[in-house]
Design brief:
By secondary structure, the chain is an alpha/beta fold. The chain contains five helices and five strands.
């Protein structure tokens, strides 16, 4: 497997995933970028916040919307370490994220290239450009290590 240089924004998402793991959360991190500038970042926090919707993507989208003072994140890119689930893919569509970059695929819970394939549904309101695989090895290693330590 060829490992390419990881863009800074995905490196930041991986750092957020490490923070999640350190807090006992599933290691997923997300970063929202607009015009080359990071405007929000977050990591999974459902256990910490006692909120089943506190996925990294949703928290980052909420923070970006607050930072921009609007609910639509047109022109924004989302970098996340794991393929988004159906809930997060729906939020990405509603937020009008322009481009989604995710590191590792998630055959079990992902909903972009697996499962529900939310962006392929005719009911999907907005379809971002999707790019996968940047930082895949690093993100997958974080996840494997996290779950191996819990078995």
């Amino acid at each position: 497997m060829t490992r390419w240089p990881i863009p800074l924004s995905m490196q930041q998402a991986l750092e957020q995933a490490r923070l999640a793991a350190a807090a006992g959360e599933v290691p997923v991190g997300a970063v929202v970028v607009k015009d080359g500038e990071v405007i929000a970042m977050a990591h999974n926090s459902p256990r910490t916040l006692h909120d089943p919707t506190a996925h990294a993507e949703l928290l980052a989208i909420r923070r970006a919307a607050q930072a921009l003072g609007q609910e639509r994140l047109e022109g924004c890119d989302l970098h996340v370490t794991l393929e988004p689930c159906a809930m997060c893919a729906g939020a990405i569509s509603h937020a009008r994220i322009a481009r989604l970059y995710y590191a590792a695929s998630d055959p079990k819970g992902g909903a972009v290239e697996h499962g529900a394939r939310v962006f392929d549904q005719p009911q999907c309101l907005h379809r971002p450009e999707v790019y996968s695989g940047m930082g895949e090895w690093e993100a997958a290693e974080l996840l494997r290590g996290f779950f191996a330590a819990r078995r």
